[in-house]
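User: quick one, fold this
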Amino acid sequence: MHNRRIEHTASLLENGKVLVTGGFDGFDIVNSAELYDPSTGNWTITGSMKNTRYRYAASILGNGNVLVTGGYSTSTELYHPSRGNWTTTGSMKDTRGFHTLSLLKNGKVLVTGGDDQAVSRSSAELYDPSTGIWTTTGSMKDERSGHTASILRNGKVLVTGGLDGRRGAYLNSAELYNPSTGIWTTTGSMNETRWFHTASVLSNGNVLVTGGSSNTAELYNQSTGIWTITGRMKHARASHQASVLRNGNVLVTGGGNDTTIINSSELYHPSTGIWTTTGSMKHARASHQAIILKDGKVLVAGGYNDLGYLDSAELYDPSTETSTIIDKINNARNNRKVSVLTNRNVN
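Assistant:
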């Protein structure tokens, strides 16, 4: 990329290009934006945002424009791919960083939580693209920043974990937003507290959450509201990325643990609940972005490691790992059968 970046955003445009914006380059918070063209592998500069931003959020709207919000401010703006420029739009009611954006089925955008560098927020707001106006909606039960938000098949939004800055507490709680009523209801709590974890909606509708300093993972069943433990990752991770591949597997990349930033990647197989290692990135990275391109490859860009802030980008090709993955799954199954036969206490 033209800029080193952490805590930036990446958005897949309708034309297949990837828009990367903002972040922190090691010296300054930036407002620059650039486009990745998968057909050439090149990055080109595009119009800069009106405001510098990091720890903010971005969402693709139904009309193809990109909405960016906050970054320790209330301001929001729109990127227009056809023109390559930005325009300001309505401001949020609250200052937010480390918040989430969710595009609802009705076309509106839900923003949840975040913090103002002092305390976390429980408030939520709705953006209407047709008017450019934000309106308040029901507040969450818990104050949260560094949490996740997932759109379920039934249209509700599942929010998990995060940090309650006022109490200084990491959360295992989860709650559901109903767009038809604007009301939040509590649902089953995760088995562990998590912050800067990931949440991925699987093809069967369940939600996989991973990491948040640990190597554990668990599944949310939207039909029952119950969380169940699933296979552990090989490495503890926070500030990593998770991508649901076309084959239904989940690719987890990078992140950090208590001692170091890592370059390893792993695949979760929903059919077995097993994690297998896959090709490692060229660079260790955390606080990076990962996005699935239209050809199914995964682009990772930016982040940081023990050597500094990164401008590099890499591509993961799921097709090159197929035979290795199959061998690893079969080996894992065989090893598990041997363990069961030799130790009756193994489940």
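User: anything notable?
Assistant: Residues 322-342 form the longest helix (21 residues).
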